[in-house]
């Protein structure tokens, strides 16, 4: 497909490699889970937060004719909002969930948008040219990415000098030193890797030449059906840890609340990493 609008030439958007998506056990778990969940009412109810989204969109200024990526786009919640608000920029939504990507591309016509496309990828590497994007935003996806150093190296490669990376993702409380929240998350087989501590997260990005400019915090609360695995896990951890996450059991569901860090990182230097 050849895309052209307001001076854009999008014919080069064949850069995502065709063919079978690469297999990785955790990525495959995530893909299968999210292909089932992303466009359900329950998922939208939990993950949609218009107040938080508005704060994210107010963190940055976009260039006319700029290229931007919504990484881990899911059902397109962020990508569609960006494309509607900034119609003189172009957006790509990228995700491993192939079926969800197909639905998103059908929804583009319903939204009457000409400045957005959605693509599936293998969850490991980007088939984009160096310095391709002016900025990347990733909401509620970072904790699923395996091989994080390789992933951040790819992020560094495809973002232009002085471009930005906006991260919105749950973090682990500093008092949770024994990894309760990661154990909790992994009881649902969706490819969860790690909720980072704040300092751990900032250190990772600094290693790859990204430095924080703006930060705000939000929260997300979500239920899961309770079973014996959750009951055993709760028995192993202190009341203080469980209170931090505001855990409640209501009927046959367990509710948990996590803090979300929303940070704008700026890429500095020429993108060449030190040995």
Please describe what this structure looks like:
The chain is α/β, with parallel strands linked by helices. It has a single domain, classed as Rossmann fold, CATH 3.40.50. The chain is 34% helix and 27% strand. The protein has ten helices and ten strands. Strands 3, 4, 5, 6, 7, 8, 9 and 10 form an eight-stranded mixed β-sheet that branches. The radius of gyration is 19 Å and the shape is globular. The termini are far apart. The N terminus is likely disordered.
Number of domains: 1
What characterizes the major β-sheet?
8 strands, mixed
Tally the beta strands.
10
The coarse silhouette is globular
Task: Estimate the mean pLDDT confidence.
Answer: 86
> What are the segments in which pLDDT stays under 50 over at least 5 consecutive residues?
1-23
- Between the first and last Cα atoms, what is the distance in angstroms? 40 Å
Number of helices: 10
Provide a brief overview of the structure:
This protein is α/β, with parallel strands linked by helices and 275 residues long. The chain contains 10 helices and 10 strands. Strands 3, 4, 5, 6, 7, 8, 9 and 10 form an 8-stranded mixed sheet that branches. The protein has a two-stranded antiparallel sheet with strand order 1-2.
Brief descriptors of the model:
alpha/beta, Rossmann fold, 10 helices, globular
Topology:
Layout: E1 4-5, E2 8-9, H1 25-37, H2 41-47, H3 50-57, E3 67-71, H4 77-85, E4 90-95, H5 98-111, E5 116-120, E6 133-139, H6 148-158, E7 159-170, H7 180-186, H8 198-207, E8 210-225, H9 228-236, H10 239-244, E9 248-250, E10 253-267
